[in-house]
Amino acid sequence: MSTLEGMTPGTWTLDPAHTEVGFSVRHAGISKVRGVFTDVAGELNVAEDAARTTGLVTVKTASVDTKNEGRDNHVRGAEFFDVENYPEMTYKVTGVELTDGEGTVKGQLTLRGVTKDVDLDTEFNGVAVDAFGTTRAGFSASTTISRKEFNVTWNAALEAGGVMVSDKVRIDLDVEFTAPESASN
Fold first, then answer.
1. 117, 143 in Cβ contact below 8 A?
2. Where are the domains of the chain?
3. What are the strands, taking DSSP E only, across 47-101?
4. Residues linked to residue 20 through DSSP beta bridges, in sequence order
5. Mapping DSSP to helix (H, G, I), strand (E, B) and coil, where does residue 158 land?
6. Alpha helix segments (H runs only) across 8-117
7. Which segments constitute the Lipid/polyisoprenoid-binding YceI-like domain (predicted)?
8. What is the gyration radius of the CA atoms in the chain, in angstroms?
9. CA-angle at 58, arms to 57 and 63, nearest 5°
10. Average pLDDT, stretch 157-171?
């Protein structure tokens, strides 16, 4: 049985102030552009058997921040996230498979109305009680997806060959959840 040692069963709430949902994509074949989403919410419904743990994380796509306002506006537009028609992307956790704190979070990513199974390579960083008495659990996770599989297909050919934006997008997560109220007292 897979366990989340120290996490009591119940609904744990994502702490957006201590969470980062980031991504990177190869630009012009020679460098990477990185970004984060600043508006994220979610919960993790922890079960005795981690394989039965479920949850939902919601990201507001308009909150994308790549440290370049012009690029951010382009990425929010119809060629990429199309935030007018798809204001959110979600990740539905369907199970957790960990051994000695490492393994996989299984789930479904929905982006631009397309849902695909996406597994996250995950490290469970443990549980701690902070200076204010709140019980917290932390995870680091990553995966790589294909933009095309989610109908994010805009690109531009480069004069020297290749394309402006790679199809592969790396997603990196550092997330923190707080325990159900009854567990943190």
1. no
2. 10-184
3. 54-60, 64-65, 88-99
4. 174
5. coil
6. 69-76
7. 11-178
8. 18
9. 135
10. 62
Q: CB count, 10 Å around CB of 156? A: 8
Task: Show the tokens assigned to 139.
Answer: 């995870």
Tokens for 75, please give them. 């990425």
- The DSSP-derived string for 79-138 is TTT-TTT--EEEEEEEEEEEETTEEEEEEEEEETTEEEE--EEEEEEEEEE-TTS-EEEE
Q: In one letter, which amino acid is 45?
A: N
Return d(Cα 75, Cα 71) in angstroms, integer. Answer: 6
Helix (H, G, I), strand (E, B) or coil at 66: coil
Q: Confirm if 183 and 8 have CB atoms less than 8 A apart.
A: yes
Average pLDDT, the chain: 86
Amino acid identity, residue 122?
Answer: T
Q: What is the pLDDT of residues 70-126, one digit of tens each?
A: 879 988 988 888 999 999 999 999 999 988 888 999 999 999 999 999 999 999 999
What torsion, rounded to 10 degrees, do the Cα atoms 95, 99, 100, 105 define?
-30
DSSP 143-154: EEEESGGGT---
Q: Rounded to whole angstroms, how far apart are CA atoms 179 and 8?
A: 8
CATH number of the structural domain 10-184? 2.40.128.110
